[in-house]
Amino acid sequence: MNRNYIILTLIMLILAFGTLFLKMDDELDQVDPEILLQEIIQPTRYVTTDQVAKMIIKGDPSLMLIDVRNEEDFQNYSLPRSVNIPLDSLLNPENLSYLGIKGTKVVFVSDDDIKADQMWVLTKRLGYKGTYVMKGGLNCWMQTIIEPQQPSGDASYADQETYSFRKGAQMYFTGASAESSDDAKVEVQVQRREKSSVAAGGC
Amino acid sequence: MHIHELNPWRTLIALSAFVVLLIVGFLTMHKPLLTYEKSMSESVAALEDSDAYFYPWQLEDVIGNKAGNIVLFDIRDNFVFGQGHIPGAENMSANNLTREENIERLKALRDNGTTVVLYGEDELHANGPWMLFRQVGFSNVKLLLGGYRYYFEHKDDLAATKNDDSYKKGIARFNYAEMAAPEDGTGVKHVAKQPVQVERRQKSNVAAGGC
Amino acid sequence: MGPLIPNGIIGDGWDFVIAILIGIAFGFILEAAGFSSSRNLAGVFYGYNFVVLRVFFTALIVAMVGIMYFDYLGWLDLSKIFILPTYLGPMIVGGVIMGFGFILGGYCPGTSFTGVAIGKLDALFFTIGLYVGIFGFSLAFPLFENFYNSGSLGNVTLTDVTGIPASYFALAFTVVALAAFWGTMFIEKRVRKNMKQYKF
Question: Tell me, what CATH number does A104's domain have?
Answer without folding.
Answer: 3.40.250.10
